[in-house]
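Anyone up for a design puzzle?
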């Protein structure tokens, strides 16, 4: 063994003093190292010192200069022993950690023709070149963003040669559009979009930056409505297909319109109550009434609720597209039905019925329609009266038509009764005729009596005259009879006088 280490042995001789000094120094160093290691093992744990509060960032300096922030100094390389990596200071911990490809929010700090400076809460400010601000390259940076705006930006590079973080608003907006499209399809979200272009096969719609295509088969049209009628309109749509590889987003107006109607209908049924007055538009007219659109849900005005007077068809009162106020009569939330009224918003004519018509009054009316038990007549003032079949003729009849009157005829009737609480007015043709006949007889008798009075006077006068004439004749006769007897008669012809 001794032979193997002969080459490494140190012979004593010249220089032995220097060797002894080096060996003593090594032994001393080893002893010191052992003492330090033992002291570390036996020493109690030391509490960590609290870091000092971080100084605030000077935003004013960033807003007035485009110079990059100073980079942290690199740590000095270790000569002999490896040292643990330095922990970040409190000031550095306030910054967020990003990586290229992230989309983050930033605040616009400065806008210049050549670049836009953005604070993204990072150790270096971000910079956006004009071509990365918007797809519309014709716009200047001042027209797109302003100081203080909070925008989404895409991180392209964490540090360029000037020390800025390279950002892109265009790519952030582009990514956002795709995210919105994917989320809308996944969650079946209802979107509102403006028709920006009409093409041969459908519509191009833009929804908050998301541009999609609506095929003609997915456009909800009314009747023969053309696609050109949708230009510049805002319509509800739903995303039905998203293909990023092909760069297309397919939307449906039919599904969007149906979903919007459901949402509006649900909202209206939550808010509507009996007794409310609502605005609506007449959507259609049927034989039994009129449908009114209340803004997403339709209600029905029954024929009997259109007017206080009888209405044969809704077209007599309303027309399609007419805007009007309606009164809510009933709400069926289970079956989704709403009953509406129109006459409730008009003055009730029955409140003045007793002032306008009195029992015994004879008036002229117009026959409106026949029914099994009589005929209805128009009294004016939005009121109608009933002529019962038993009051239409003196003779018994089986049908109202047998009374000799037709619809549209004006006839004279007598008011029998007025019952406003029951909304009834009873009329009678028979009673009017009977009263008219009595009046005619009364007038005839009066005329005869007047005639008779004149004849008797004349007779008396004539008799008086005749009596006077008779008495005059008698007087003359008596005077002739009383002539004296010695008087010679008057001379007649052929007689001579004595000498």
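Challenge accepted. My sequence:
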């Amino acid at each position: 063994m001794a032979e193997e280490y002969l080459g490494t042995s140190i012979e004593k001789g010249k220089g032995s003093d220097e060797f002894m000094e080096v060996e003593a120094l090594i032994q001393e160093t080893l002893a010191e190292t052992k003492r330090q290691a033992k002291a570390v093992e036996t020493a109690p744990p030391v509490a960590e010192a609290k870091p000092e509060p971080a100084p605030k960032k000077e935003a004013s300096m960033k807003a007035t200069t485009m110079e990059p922030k100073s980079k942290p100094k690199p740590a000095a390389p270790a000569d002999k022993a490896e040292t643990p990596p330095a922990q970040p200071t409190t000031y550095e911990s306030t910054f967020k950690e990003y990586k290229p490809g992230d989309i983050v929010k930033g605040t616009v700090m400065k806008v210049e023709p050549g670049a836009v400076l953005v604070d993204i809460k990072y150790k270096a400010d971000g910079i956006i070149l004009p071509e990365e601000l918007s797809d519309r390259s014709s716009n200047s940076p001042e027209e797109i963003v302003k100081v203080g705006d909070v925008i989404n930006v895409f991180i392209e590079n964490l540090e360029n040669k000037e020390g800025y973080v390279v950002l892109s608003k265009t790519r952030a907006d582009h990514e956002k559009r795709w995210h919105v499209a994917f989320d809308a399809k996944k969650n079946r979200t209802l979107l509102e979009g403006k028709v920006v272009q009409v093409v041969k096969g459908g519509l191009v719609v833009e929804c908050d930056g998301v541009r999609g295509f609506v095929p003609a088969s997915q456009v909800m049209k009314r009747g023969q409505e053309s696609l050109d009628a949708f230009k510049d309109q805002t319509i509800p749509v739903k995303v039905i297909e998203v293909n990023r590889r092909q760069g297309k987003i397919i939307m449906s107006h039919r599904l969007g319109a149906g979903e919007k109607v459901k949402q509006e209908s649900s909202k209206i049924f939550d808010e509507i109550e009996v007794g409310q007055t609502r605005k609506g538009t007449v959507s259609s007219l049927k034989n039994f009434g009129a449908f009114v659109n209340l803004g997403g849900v339709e209600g029905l005005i029954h024929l009997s609720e259109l007017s206080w007077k009888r209405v044969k068809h809704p077209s007599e009162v309303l027309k399609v597209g007419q805007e009007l106020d309606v009164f809510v009569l009933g709400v069926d939330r289970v079956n989704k039905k709403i009953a509406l009224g129109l006459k409730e918003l008009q003055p009730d004519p029955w409140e003045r019925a007793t002032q306008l018509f009195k029992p015994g009054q004879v008036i002229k009316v117009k026959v409106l329609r026949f029914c099994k038990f009589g005929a209805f007549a128009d009294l004016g003032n939005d009121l109608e009266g009933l002529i019962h079949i038993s009051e239409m003729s003196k003779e018994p009849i089986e049908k109202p038509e047998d009374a000799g009157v037709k619809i549209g005829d004006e006839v004279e009737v007598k008011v029998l009764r007025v019952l406003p609480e029951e909304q009834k007015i009873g009329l009678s043709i028979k009673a009017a005729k009977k009263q008219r006949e009595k009046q005619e007889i009364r007038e005839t008798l009066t005329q005869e009596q007047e005639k008779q009075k004149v004849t008797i006077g004349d007779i008396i006068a004539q008799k008086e005259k005749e009596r006077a004439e008779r008495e005059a004749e008698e007087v003359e006769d008596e005077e002739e009879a009383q002539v004296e007897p010695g008087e010679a008669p008057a001379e007649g012809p052929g007689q001579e006088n004595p000498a």
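A detail worth pointing out: Residues 1-16, 45-83, 483-499 have pLDDT under 50 and may be disordered.
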